[in-house]
Amino acid sequence: MTQIPLSQEMTLHLVGVGVTHSIAYSMHNYIAKSLGLPWTFYSTECPTIEELLKLAKAPTTAGLVVTMPYKNSVMKHLDELDELATIIGACNNIYYKPGSQRLLCGTNTDWRGIKGCLLEKGDESRRPSATSPASALIVGAGGASRAAIYALSAHMNCSTIYILNRDDQEVTGLIHDSRKLPNPPNIIHVKTLKQAEELPSPYYVVGTVPDFEPKTDTEIAVAALLESFLSRPDKGVLLDMCFKPRRTRMIKLGEKLEWPCVEGTHIIGYQIHEQWRLWAGEECVKKLDQKGAWGVLIKAADESKGINF
Q1: What is the reported pLDDT for 100?
Q2: Is the pTM of this model over 0.85?
Q3: In the chain, N or C terminus with fewer CB closer than 10 Å?
Q4: What is the pLDDT, as a whole number, of residue 3?
Q5: In this predicted structure, what is the pLDDT of residue 101?
Q6: Regions of the chain with pLDDT less than 50
Protein backbone atom coordinates (compact mmCIF):
# COMPACT_ATOMS: atom_id res chain seq x y z
CA MET A 1 0.00 0.00 0.00
CA THR A 2 2.98 2.38 0.12
CA GLN A 3 5.42 3.97 -2.28
CA ILE A 4 7.54 5.46 0.53
CA PRO A 5 11.04 3.94 0.70
CA LEU A 6 11.01 2.13 4.04
CA SER A 7 14.69 2.88 4.63
CA GLN A 8 14.19 6.65 4.34
CA GLU A 9 13.90 8.85 7.43
CA MET A 10 10.30 10.06 7.58
CA THR A 11 7.91 11.67 10.03
CA LEU A 12 4.37 10.89 11.18
CA HIS A 13 2.18 13.44 12.94
CA LEU A 14 -0.88 13.78 15.11
CA VAL A 15 -2.34 17.07 13.88
CA GLY A 16 -4.99 19.30 15.37
CA VAL A 17 -5.51 21.91 18.04
CA GLY A 18 -4.63 21.06 21.64
CA VAL A 19 -2.66 17.89 20.84
CA THR A 20 0.34 18.50 23.09
CA HIS A 21 -1.19 16.30 25.80
CA SER A 22 -1.31 13.31 23.46
CA ILE A 23 0.04 9.98 24.72
CA ALA A 24 0.16 8.39 21.26
CA TYR A 25 3.64 9.44 20.17
CA SER A 26 5.54 6.99 22.41
CA MET A 27 3.42 4.07 21.20
CA HIS A 28 3.85 4.98 17.53
CA ASN A 29 7.60 5.44 17.95
CA TYR A 30 7.73 2.01 19.59
CA ILE A 31 5.89 0.57 16.59
CA ALA A 32 8.28 2.23 14.12
CA LYS A 33 11.21 0.70 15.98
CA SER A 34 9.54 -2.73 16.12
CA LEU A 35 9.05 -2.56 12.33
CA GLY A 36 12.66 -1.47 11.75
CA LEU A 37 11.62 1.87 10.26
CA PRO A 38 13.63 5.11 10.71
CA TRP A 39 10.37 7.01 11.22
CA THR A 40 9.50 9.40 14.05
CA PHE A 41 6.02 10.31 15.28
CA TYR A 42 5.24 13.82 16.59
CA SER A 43 2.27 15.58 18.15
CA THR A 44 2.10 18.73 16.02
CA GLU A 45 -0.10 21.73 16.76
CA CYS A 46 -1.76 23.08 13.59
CA PRO A 47 -3.66 26.28 14.39
CA THR A 48 -4.96 26.45 10.80
CA ILE A 49 -5.96 23.98 8.09
CA GLU A 50 -3.28 25.54 5.87
CA GLU A 51 -0.55 24.45 8.30
CA LEU A 52 -1.98 20.93 8.38
CA LEU A 53 -1.96 20.73 4.57
CA LYS A 54 1.58 22.08 4.34
CA LEU A 55 2.72 19.33 6.66
CA ALA A 56 0.71 16.72 4.74
CA LYS A 57 2.37 17.73 1.46
CA ALA A 58 5.90 17.69 2.86
CA PRO A 59 7.94 14.96 1.09
CA THR A 60 9.24 13.69 4.45
CA THR A 61 5.75 13.04 5.87
CA ALA A 62 4.68 9.37 5.89
CA GLY A 63 1.20 9.86 7.32
CA LEU A 64 -1.05 11.90 9.59
CA VAL A 65 -3.55 11.22 12.35
CA VAL A 66 -6.15 14.01 12.16
CA THR A 67 -8.01 15.17 15.25
CA MET A 68 -10.26 18.08 16.24
CA PRO A 69 -11.19 20.41 14.69
CA TYR A 70 -10.19 19.14 11.23
CA LYS A 71 -11.87 15.74 10.82
CA ASN A 72 -14.56 17.26 8.59
CA SER A 73 -12.87 20.32 7.12
CA VAL A 74 -9.78 18.49 5.83
CA MET A 75 -11.79 16.23 3.54
CA LYS A 76 -12.34 18.69 0.69
CA HIS A 77 -8.61 19.40 0.51
CA LEU A 78 -7.51 15.79 -0.09
CA ASP A 79 -6.86 14.20 -3.48
CA GLU A 80 -8.89 11.12 -2.68
CA LEU A 81 -11.27 9.83 0.00
CA ASP A 82 -11.95 6.14 0.43
CA GLU A 83 -15.45 4.74 0.87
CA LEU A 84 -15.24 4.76 4.67
CA ALA A 85 -14.34 8.45 4.93
CA THR A 86 -17.01 9.30 2.36
CA ILE A 87 -19.91 7.44 3.97
CA ILE A 88 -18.89 8.30 7.54
CA GLY A 89 -18.35 11.96 6.67
CA ALA A 90 -15.13 12.36 8.65
CA CYS A 91 -11.43 11.67 8.08
CA ASN A 92 -8.96 10.96 10.87
CA ASN A 93 -6.15 9.31 8.90
CA ILE A 94 -4.15 10.58 5.91
CA TYR A 95 -1.94 8.25 3.91
CA TYR A 96 -0.27 8.24 0.50
CA LYS A 97 -1.53 6.06 -2.32
CA PRO A 98 0.98 4.31 -4.60
CA GLY A 99 1.33 5.76 -8.07
CA SER A 100 3.18 8.27 -10.17
CA GLN A 101 2.02 11.15 -7.96
CA ARG A 102 2.04 11.46 -4.17
CA LEU A 103 -1.70 11.65 -3.63
CA LEU A 104 -3.14 12.67 -0.28
CA CYS A 105 -5.70 10.01 0.64
CA GLY A 106 -8.13 10.04 3.56
CA THR A 107 -9.85 7.31 5.52
CA ASN A 108 -11.52 6.80 8.88
CA THR A 109 -10.15 4.41 11.50
CA ASP A 110 -11.90 5.98 14.52
CA TRP A 111 -14.80 3.58 14.15
CA ARG A 112 -12.46 0.62 14.75
CA GLY A 113 -11.40 2.18 18.04
CA ILE A 114 -15.01 2.74 19.08
CA LYS A 115 -16.03 -0.81 18.21
CA GLY A 116 -13.07 -2.32 20.05
CA CYS A 117 -13.75 -0.30 23.19
CA LEU A 118 -17.46 -1.12 23.29
CA LEU A 119 -16.70 -4.84 23.01
CA GLU A 120 -14.33 -4.69 26.00
CA LYS A 121 -17.15 -4.76 28.52
CA GLY A 122 -20.82 -5.54 28.78
CA ASP A 123 -23.17 -8.47 29.39
CA GLU A 124 -22.86 -10.76 26.36
CA SER A 125 -26.36 -12.16 26.95
CA ARG A 126 -27.78 -8.63 26.58
CA ARG A 127 -25.51 -7.30 23.84
CA PRO A 128 -27.43 -6.14 20.74
CA SER A 129 -27.42 -8.67 17.89
CA ALA A 130 -28.74 -8.98 14.35
CA THR A 131 -31.85 -10.73 15.68
CA SER A 132 -32.21 -8.45 18.68
CA PRO A 133 -31.10 -4.90 17.75
CA ALA A 134 -31.10 -2.10 20.31
CA SER A 135 -30.68 1.62 20.64
CA ALA A 136 -27.54 3.62 21.45
CA LEU A 137 -26.86 7.14 22.65
CA ILE A 138 -24.20 9.59 21.43
CA VAL A 139 -23.26 12.85 23.14
CA GLY A 140 -22.11 15.32 20.48
CA ALA A 141 -22.59 15.81 16.74
CA GLY A 142 -19.11 16.55 15.38
CA GLY A 143 -16.62 14.46 13.38
CA ALA A 144 -16.16 11.81 16.06
CA SER A 145 -19.92 11.29 16.34
CA ARG A 146 -20.05 10.30 12.68
CA ALA A 147 -17.57 7.48 13.26
CA ALA A 148 -19.60 6.44 16.30
CA ILE A 149 -22.81 6.29 14.26
CA TYR A 150 -21.11 4.12 11.65
CA ALA A 151 -19.64 1.76 14.25
CA LEU A 152 -22.92 1.45 16.15
CA SER A 153 -25.23 1.03 13.17
CA ALA A 154 -23.04 -0.99 10.79
CA HIS A 155 -21.15 -3.17 13.30
CA MET A 156 -22.89 -3.08 16.69
CA ASN A 157 -26.53 -3.78 15.75
CA CYS A 158 -27.96 -0.44 16.87
CA SER A 159 -30.74 0.55 14.51
CA THR A 160 -31.82 3.58 16.56
CA ILE A 161 -29.42 6.21 17.87
CA TYR A 162 -30.25 9.05 20.23
CA ILE A 163 -28.24 12.28 19.96
CA LEU A 164 -27.68 14.74 22.79
CA ASN A 165 -26.18 17.99 21.53
CA ARG A 166 -26.34 21.68 22.34
CA ASP A 167 -26.59 22.83 18.69
CA ASP A 168 -29.60 21.91 16.52
CA GLN A 169 -27.84 22.70 13.23
CA GLU A 170 -25.00 20.30 14.01
CA VAL A 171 -27.53 17.51 14.53
CA THR A 172 -29.26 18.38 11.26
CA GLY A 173 -25.92 18.05 9.47
CA LEU A 174 -25.21 14.77 11.26
CA ILE A 175 -28.55 13.31 10.20
CA HIS A 176 -27.92 14.44 6.61
CA ASP A 177 -24.50 12.78 6.55
CA SER A 178 -25.81 9.56 8.11
CA ARG A 179 -28.08 9.01 5.12
CA LYS A 180 -24.97 8.05 3.13
CA LEU A 181 -24.61 4.88 5.21
CA PRO A 182 -25.68 1.60 3.57
CA ASN A 183 -28.41 1.06 6.20
CA PRO A 184 -29.02 4.46 7.82
CA PRO A 185 -30.11 4.23 11.45
CA ASN A 186 -33.08 6.05 12.89
CA ILE A 187 -31.50 9.11 14.52
CA ILE A 188 -33.46 10.91 17.23
CA HIS A 189 -32.36 14.27 18.58
CA VAL A 190 -33.44 14.14 22.22
CA LYS A 191 -34.12 17.61 23.61
CA THR A 192 -36.37 17.20 26.65
CA LEU A 193 -36.66 14.92 29.67
CA LYS A 194 -40.25 14.12 28.67
CA GLN A 195 -39.07 12.96 25.25
CA ALA A 196 -36.31 10.88 26.86
CA GLU A 197 -38.73 9.16 29.23
CA GLU A 198 -40.71 7.83 26.27
CA LEU A 199 -37.66 6.15 24.67
CA PRO A 200 -36.24 2.67 25.40
CA SER A 201 -32.95 2.54 27.30
CA PRO A 202 -29.79 2.61 25.16
CA TYR A 203 -27.32 -0.26 25.49
CA TYR A 204 -24.27 1.69 24.30
CA VAL A 205 -23.44 5.27 25.31
CA VAL A 206 -20.62 7.12 23.54
CA GLY A 207 -19.28 10.56 24.44
CA THR A 208 -17.62 12.49 21.60
CA VAL A 209 -17.17 16.00 23.06
CA PRO A 210 -14.48 17.75 25.14
CA ASP A 211 -14.79 17.52 28.92
CA PHE A 212 -16.02 21.06 29.62
CA GLU A 213 -18.19 21.98 32.58
CA PRO A 214 -21.74 22.75 31.34
CA LYS A 215 -22.42 26.49 31.54
CA THR A 216 -25.03 27.54 28.98
CA ASP A 217 -28.68 26.52 29.24
CA THR A 218 -28.34 24.06 26.36
CA GLU A 219 -25.18 22.50 27.82
CA ILE A 220 -26.87 22.08 31.20
CA ALA A 221 -29.89 20.52 29.47
CA VAL A 222 -27.65 17.99 27.66
CA ALA A 223 -25.98 17.06 30.98
CA ALA A 224 -29.39 16.55 32.63
CA LEU A 225 -30.57 14.34 29.76
CA LEU A 226 -27.43 12.22 29.94
CA GLU A 227 -27.85 11.70 33.68
CA SER A 228 -31.49 10.79 33.14
CA PHE A 229 -30.55 8.01 30.69
CA LEU A 230 -27.67 6.75 32.83
CA SER A 231 -29.84 6.65 35.96
CA ARG A 232 -32.04 3.93 34.50
CA PRO A 233 -31.69 0.39 35.89
CA ASP A 234 -30.58 -1.07 32.52
CA LYS A 235 -26.81 -0.73 32.07
CA GLY A 236 -24.88 -1.49 28.88
CA VAL A 237 -21.43 -0.07 28.09
CA LEU A 238 -20.26 3.55 28.28
CA LEU A 239 -17.32 4.94 26.32
CA ASP A 240 -16.05 8.51 26.53
CA MET A 241 -13.78 9.24 23.56
CA CYS A 242 -12.38 12.28 25.36
CA PHE A 243 -9.40 11.51 27.61
CA LYS A 244 -8.27 14.93 28.77
CA PRO A 245 -8.67 14.39 31.65
CA ARG A 246 -8.49 10.62 31.62
CA ARG A 247 -11.32 10.41 34.15
CA THR A 248 -13.86 12.72 32.56
CA ARG A 249 -17.07 13.95 34.12
CA MET A 250 -18.92 11.45 31.98
CA ILE A 251 -16.77 8.51 33.13
CA LYS A 252 -17.16 9.52 36.79
CA LEU A 253 -20.94 9.84 36.40
CA GLY A 254 -21.17 6.51 34.60
CA GLU A 255 -19.18 4.73 37.29
CA LYS A 256 -21.25 6.36 40.03
CA LEU A 257 -24.39 5.05 38.34
CA GLU A 258 -22.84 1.56 37.93
CA TRP A 259 -22.21 1.58 34.20
CA PRO A 260 -19.32 -0.52 32.84
CA CYS A 261 -17.04 2.23 31.49
CA VAL A 262 -14.17 2.30 28.98
CA GLU A 263 -11.78 5.25 28.85
CA GLY A 264 -10.98 7.03 25.61
CA THR A 265 -7.25 6.18 25.62
CA HIS A 266 -8.09 2.64 24.48
CA ILE A 267 -9.49 3.97 21.19
CA ILE A 268 -5.91 4.63 20.09
CA GLY A 269 -4.83 1.02 20.50
CA TYR A 270 -7.60 -0.51 18.41
CA GLN A 271 -6.64 1.58 15.36
CA ILE A 272 -2.91 0.95 15.14
CA HIS A 273 -2.90 -2.08 12.84
CA GLU A 274 -5.02 -0.42 10.16
CA GLN A 275 -3.16 2.91 10.45
CA TRP A 276 0.23 1.29 10.01
CA ARG A 277 -1.01 -0.96 7.24
CA LEU A 278 -1.88 2.15 5.25
CA TRP A 279 1.31 4.02 6.13
CA ALA A 280 3.91 1.26 5.83
CA GLY A 281 2.26 -1.48 3.77
CA GLU A 282 0.83 -4.97 4.13
CA GLU A 283 4.13 -6.85 4.43
CA CYS A 284 5.74 -4.48 6.88
CA VAL A 285 2.78 -4.41 9.27
CA LYS A 286 2.94 -8.19 9.73
CA LYS A 287 5.87 -7.54 12.09
CA LEU A 288 3.91 -5.11 14.25
CA ASP A 289 4.17 -5.96 17.96
CA GLN A 290 0.58 -5.31 19.06
CA LYS A 291 1.02 -6.48 22.64
CA GLY A 292 4.15 -4.39 23.11
CA ALA A 293 2.48 -1.33 21.56
CA TRP A 294 -0.51 -1.65 23.89
CA GLY A 295 1.87 -1.91 26.84
CA VAL A 296 3.61 1.33 25.85
CA LEU A 297 0.24 3.05 25.36
CA ILE A 298 -1.12 2.10 28.78
CA LYS A 299 2.18 3.03 30.49
CA ALA A 300 2.11 6.42 28.78
CA ALA A 301 -1.49 6.94 29.88
CA ASP A 302 -0.64 6.02 33.48
CA GLU A 303 2.34 8.37 33.62
CA SER A 304 0.92 11.35 31.71
CA LYS A 305 0.50 14.52 33.75
CA GLY A 306 -1.41 15.99 30.83
CA ILE A 307 -4.42 13.68 31.25
CA ASN A 308 -4.24 12.50 34.88
CA PHE A 309 -5.64 15.41 36.88
Answers
A1: 56
A2: yes
A3: C
A4: 56
A5: 74
A6: 1-2
